[in-house]
Design brief:
The complex is a heterodimer of chains A (about 290) and B (about 260). Chain A is mainly alpha-helical and about 290 residues long. Helix content of chain A is about 75%, strand content about 0%. Chain A has two domains: about 5-60; about 85-285, MetI-like fold (Orthogonal Bundle), CATH 1.10.3720. Chain A has helices at about 5-40, 45-55, 65-75, 85-120, 120-135, 140-150, 155-180, 185-195, 200-235, 240-250, 255-285. The longest helix of chain A has about 35 residues, at about 200-235. Chain B has about 260 residues and is an alpha/beta fold. Chain B has helices at about 45-55, 70-75, 95-105, 110-125, 140-150, 170-185, 200-205, 240-255, and strands spanning about 5-15, 20-30, 35-40, 60-65, 80-85, 160, 190-195, 205-210, 215-225. In chain B, the strands form two sheets. In chain B, strands 5-6-7-3-8-9 form a six-stranded mixed β-sheet, with helices on both faces. In chain B, strands 2-1-4 form a three-stranded antiparallel β-sheet, with helices on one face. In chain B, helix 3 crosses helix 4, helix 3 packs parallel to helix 5 and helix 7 (about 200-205) packs across helix 8 (about 240-255). Chain B is globular and about 50 Å long. The termini of chain B are far apart. The chains are: A mainly alpha (about 290), B alpha/beta (about 260). The interface between A and B is medium-sized, with 20 and 25 residues. Chain B: Belongs to the ABC transporter superfamily. Chain B: GO terms for molecular function: ATP binding; ATP hydrolysis activity. Chain B: InterPro entries: AAA+_ATPase, ABC_transporter-like_ATP-bd, ABC_transporter-like_CS, ABC_transporter_ATP-bind, P-loop_NTPase.
Amino acid sequence: MKPAGSTIPILVVLLAALVLWYLGAIALNWRGQLDADQLRGVTGQTWTDTLGATLGQDKPLLPAPHQLVAELWKTIAQQAVTSKKSLVYHGWITLSATLLGFAFGTALGIGLAVLIVHNDATNRSLMPWIIASQTVPILAIAPMIIVVLNAVGISGLVPKALISTYLSFFPVVVGMVKGFRSPESIQLDLMHTYNASKLQSFIKLRWPIALPYLFASMKVGVAASLVGAIVGELPAGGGNGLGARLLAGSYYGQTIQIWSALAVAALLAGGLVVIVGLVERAVVREMGARPA
Amino acid sequence: MTAVVSAKNLGLTFSTGDGDVVALTDVNLEIEEGEFVSFIGPSGCGKTTFLRVIADLEQPTSGSITINGMTPEAARISRAYGYVFQAPALFPWRTIEKNVALPLEIMGYSQAEQQARIARTMELVNLTGFERKFPWQLSGGMQQRASIARALAFDADLLLMDEPFGALDEIVRDHLNSELLKLFAATKKTIAFVTHSIPEAVYLSTKIVVMSPRPGRVTDIIRSTLPAERPLDIRETPEFLEIAHRVREGLRAGHSYEE
């Protein structure tokens, strides 16, 4: 249960963020507004005129919240979802790659963790590579993956999903190795006295005890998946998806477009994490956890 | 009477970074069918280690031991014993009945058979009505009773109990001790019971094995002269006190409290 009276603090924080945003927009856009006025020979501006203008520029350094909302309204509500101008369309393209990559990544992560926990040789041989894989900057290898796969005739969803997989399997491996190893020795002894097979011990002990670790890992993994899908859309250039929108926006200095794509990406990531959290809550309740 | 457990010159030495630790040395012991044998001694006397050797959880380094004439491993594989640990070790994501069903699932009992066995063992440990509760909803004593039900569920003739009531308070412990005696009478099982409480050992046992540490060894084996029927106030009779005295003497003879 939410503690009573948590609404007001949340609203206060939200309001403070909004005020800071407006102040930031004014401060960052002020200089540019003065320069633009000078360039166009506009004179006699009072400071209130400038202030108003900083919040209504076409290509502001930092768009004001209401400009962002207007852009989101225009590109989400006022476009057909199949239109290339619709952020729903681009968002869905990114989301589908994210979900596919996340599913791959979670399955791969669990599979690797099973191998690592049950076999010391795989533990020693795989773990260094898994860790090394995450030290490679994703921005550097994403274009290569896209190009190489394109060359062998694979394009569209799968290459992007693979980049999501690359980023999302890691937290799952690390979390699940820890989770599969979390039974206490007394619980393992118990299974031993029953002469339980490795498979039985896995199904009845290691898997259920590791589930909380899985959900924690999946929350990190799903957000990483979205980042992967967006990064995968960057090298495509002029294509579809939120990443392509970001890139196009930065080519043409369309800051409002960039920010609105960012906002949609943030909302998607937040929504995905919330969904994982809800599934976790349902599973944990099913597993008889003491209510917090 | 036939020997359920028979140990001859049994020894177990742990190799550690600091050198060898002799956990058991030269243990000669028989546990016969239908006996309630307590192992008593201070920490480090090897009583738990001996129980773990019977259960094939530790491997002896010298001597021999048989369970029902088999090696500990063969006995474990034939599911010859149920083991009750110091902690209940219930799986928190399973209800009490599902915890009791755990060994039955692993051993491949049918659904109907599982239900029948759950009902029977839950009644034996007086937990009927708590089948659908999760472990955290039960007190410590009830959790340990559930773990006893789990050990009884597959009808092994030998019950190994490693200080099962050590973490419980005196009142709960008295209650569970008398329940355990009833269960012992009702099921005719052979029980090996590790404890460090003298009254508990004397109250429960038909045979008391006194052990001492460094190195872990048996210093005395006492056959109880108490009747099978034992109300709790038997603990104030001269006969009871005499056995308790002999246990205490045995512990002292082991020089166990000098250090």
